[in-house]
């Protein structure tokens, strides 16, 4: 089940899990599995916008955590 389906199903704990996974995957793709790995040679503009994407995901996390308290 993807994040959008979890939102429609009001599965906010699942949304939190998915959002945390996105952040982990971003870090893994940019930094590599090991800190000694060379950075992924991505020629797209994605690496330039990593921080922006992380901020969006963090907003989703905050909203989802709030919605689990209702």
Tag the structure with descriptive keywords.
0% strand; single chain; 70 residues
| Helix content estimate | 55-70%
What string, H for helix and E for strand, traces the elements in order? HHH
**Mean of the pLDDT scores?**
82
Number of DSSP strand runs: 0
When the domains are counted, the total is 1
Largest sheet, described in full? none
Distance between the termini: 23 Å
Give the helix tally: 3
The proportion of residues in beta strands is under 5%
Provide a quick synopsis of the model.
The chain is an all-alpha fold and 70 residues long.
Would you spell out the secondary-structure blueprint of this structure?
Blueprint: H1 3-8, H2 12-31, H3 50-68
Describe the structure.
The protein is mainly α. The chain has one domain. 64% of the residues lie in helices and 0% in strands. The protein contains three helices and no strands. The model has no long low-confidence stretch (mean pLDDT 82). InterPro entries: Invertase/methylesterase_inhib.
């Amino acid at each position: 089940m993807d994040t959008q389906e979890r939102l429609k199903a009001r599965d906010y704990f699942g949304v939190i899990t998915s959002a945390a996974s996105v952040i982990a995957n971003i870090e893994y793709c940019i930094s590599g599995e090991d800190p000694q790995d060379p950075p992924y040679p991505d020629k797209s503009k994605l690496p330039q916008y990593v921080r922006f994407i992380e901020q969006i995901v963090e907003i989703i996390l905050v909203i989802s955590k709030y919605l689990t308290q209702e």
